[in-house]
UniProtKB/TrEMBL annotation:
PANTHER family: ADENINE DEAMINASE (PTHR11113:SF2), N-ACETYLGLUCOSAMINE-6-PHOSPHATE DEACETYLASE (PTHR11113). InterPro entries: Adenine_deam (IPR006679), Adenine_deam_C (IPR026912), Amidohydro-rel (IPR006680), Metal-dep_hydrolase_composite (IPR011059), Metal_Hydrolase (IPR032466). Residues 80-369 form the Amidohydrolase-related domain. Belongs to the metallo-dependent hydrolases superfamily. Adenine deaminase family. It comes from the Bacteria. This is Adenine deaminase. Signal peptide: none annotated. Its cofactor is Mn(2+).
Length: 603
């Protein structure tokens, strides 16, 4: 098994200098390529790179003086030599994969590193969950940097129940684990920051005192006077950009604007116009994924796909590459180590064939080792074992029944104006709708209105029995159907959506029996995708997980739910810090210019 240890530059200086001057043979050299220089914004012909161990010793026209008997020589033959791609904001748990399998999935696609916010597993297991993922990261070839979850729970204990909580003391502790714990993860409770919440400001202060960075999540309009207030707290990066103005205002305040292209969030097309139409300098603009499923990694790609999307919007290829390499490294103060092909940097390098705009990755080098070639992993990665506790995280006090999904009305008959969550395809935001729904024998008759389904959340961490049931629009089911999942951002309770109470109960029991996962049920049968690791990640290899994720997508589609990467969109319907209307185990939550509040189902 290859050791992918990344030594500090200070420990490598004598060897690097000796190699660069020709007194010590390079371990690997790349010759005769077109260097994508993200520092100068140039393409340099006929360039070569010499590597010693995990770092770059030399970049120039000729590396012949560094080639010895044991040197591995890679002839680029005119291909582009580019820095490995970096994802500046990513939740690995959203891929449904372990860190190891995520690495296997993305390294052949050219991603060699990233900044990972493990707030999904943190909502289930707290610091222990983050520590487990960090330990696993350190055994992979990735230049992986962990962010400490800032909002566990996301909106606060009064709005939802999580399996753990994290505050200033826990944040300070996590930063003692090592320099690869780089930042405070997205601060989603932005109203708390703006209005001086002691816990949120304490977490930010602990981060700044540790010399780390603070990532943001601000969903009020960019024109809101409170964005500079948020920035004053030390927040210097934000991925909740959905318009050009969102990008422009953040950059003007000195923040890094992160433009995402997840599986179901297609924000690059609009946000990138801050540069292509408004001429904003791209130095503080980054491309990120945020959330991509294993299925979309398989079918579309990772950062290579995001870059192609930006280039298709009119961004120059080298500028797009900068937004996924050096800009990202500079945002986290790591440009000395990653993000460029320069002497002293880690040897994270990709070879690109054909047109640069195609981002056609044919070889990936991570920490000086060839790990993938022609889309296939060539390096074997060690298996990481999660403890039994993490494989048994669904704790319901009793088995759900169809009665759990009845919505009792305050009247026996008539109609009630009801708040409805309206789903938006390819967007994280929902719309709050008011719909008049009939009441029959004291129960809300949701099926009487075409296009509506029930949506429920069952608390699964502490066995409290907390439950809420509401109404959702835009799912599209054309037959009796239900889906249940333990992936329900960010508290990850059991989320159930359906138009048939019996099927909703069956789906909920199926994911509980599997100790986590996704289950889609219709009269035609059941499709189950087990996610036993914290109810979030599969124990299976990438290829199998992607196939099971695709099977859920097909089952949804066959039942009439044609939303793009529907599962990803549905899993966010419990995320209480995204506008406008959401559901948690404690009820309906609305986020508005006034802040976050619980609101009644009936108006």
């Amino acid at each position: 098994m290859t050791n992918f240890t990344r030594k500090p530059l200070a420990d490598c200086v004598p060897e690097l200098v000796a190699t660069a001057r020709g007194d010590k043979p390079a371990t690997l050299v790349i010759t005769g390529g077109k260097l994508v220089n993200v520092c100068s914004g140039e393409i340099l012909e006929g360039m070569s790179v010499g590597i010693q161990g995990g770092r770059i010793a030399y970049v120039g026209k000729d590396v012949a003086h560094m080639i010895g008997e044991g040197t591995q020589v890679i002839e680029a033959n005119g291909k582009y030599i580019a820095p490995g791609l970096l994802d500046g904001h990513c939740h690995i748990e959203s891929t449904q994969l372990t860190v190891t399998e995520f690495s296997r999935a993305v390294l052949p696609l050219g991603t060699t590193g990233g900044f990972f916010d493990a707030h999904e597993i943190a909502n289930v297991f707290g610091l222990k969950g983050i520590q487990l993922m960090l330990d696993e990261m350190r055994g992979t070839p990735l230049a992986a940097y962990m962010q400490v979850a800032s909002c566990v729970p996301a909106a606060g204990a009064e709005f939802e129940t999580t399996g753990a909580s994290i505050g200033p003391e826990e944040v300070a502790e996590a930063f003692t684990w090592g320099p690869d714990v780089i930042a405070l993860g997205e601060v989603m409770n932005f109203p708390g920051v703006v209005y001086g919440d002691e816990k949120m400001l304490g977490e930010i202060q602990a981060t700044l005192r540790a010399g780390r960075f603070v990532d943001g999540h601000f969903t009020w309009p960019s024109s809101d006077w409170r964005l500079p207030v948020y920035a004053a707290a030390g927040v210097t990066g934000d991925h909740e950009c959905v318009t050009a103005d969102d990008v422009i205002e953040r950059v003007r305040l000195g923040m890094y604007a992160k433009m995402r292209r997840g599986s179901a969030w297609h924000d690059v097309a609009k946000t990138i116009t801050a540069h292509t139409e408004h001429g904003i300098d791209t130095r503080r603009m980054m491309l990120v994924t945020d959330d991509r499923s294993s299925e979309s990694l398989r079918d579309e790609g990772h950062m290579n796909f995001v870059l192609r999307d930006a280039i298709a919007q009119g961004v120059k290829p080298i500028t797009a590459i900068q937004m996924a390499t050096i800009n990202t490294a500079e945002r986290f103060g790591l440009a000395r180590d990653i993000g460029s092909i320069t002497p002293g940097s880690f040897a994270d390098i990709i070879l690109l064939d054909g047109n640069l705009a195609d981002i056609n990755v044919v070889l990936t080098i991570a920490a000086g080792v060839v790990v993938a070639e022609n889309g296939v992993m060539t390096a074997e990665l060690a298996k990481f074992t999660y403890p039994e506790e993490v494989l048994a995280s669904v704790h319901l006090p009793q088995r759900p029944t169809s009665e759990d999904f009845i919505i009792t009305a305050p009247i026996q008959t008539g109609e009630l104006t009801t708040r409805v969550i309206k789903v938006r395809e390819n967007h994280v935001e929902t719309i709050e709708r008011m719909v008049s729904i009939p009441v029959v024998e004291g129960q809300l008759d949701v099926n009487a209105i075409e296009g509506l389904c029930k949506i429920a959340v069952l608390e699964r961490h502490k066995g409290t029995g907390n439950k809420s049931v509401a109404v959702v629009e835009g799912i599209g089911f054309k037959e009796p159907a239900a889906i249940a999942m333990t992936v329900a951002h960010d508290s990850h309770n059991v989320l159930v959506i359906g138009n048939d109470d019996d099927l909703m109960a069956k789906a909920a029991n199926a994911v509980a029996d599997a100790q986590g996962g996704v289950c889609m049920i219709t009269s035609g049968g059941e499709t189950l995708f087990p996610l036993a690791i914290a109810g979030l990640m599969s124990t299976e290899p990438f290829e199998i997980a992607a196939a099971k994720s695709a099977a859920i997508s097909k089952a949804l589609y066959d039942a009439g739910c044609t939303l793009n990467y529907a599962f990803m969109t549905l899993s966010l319907l419990a995320l209480a810090v995204i506008p406008t209307l959401r559901i948690t185990d404690k009820g309906l939550v609305r986020i508005s210019p006034e802040g976050i509040q619980l609101v009644p189902l009936f108006v």
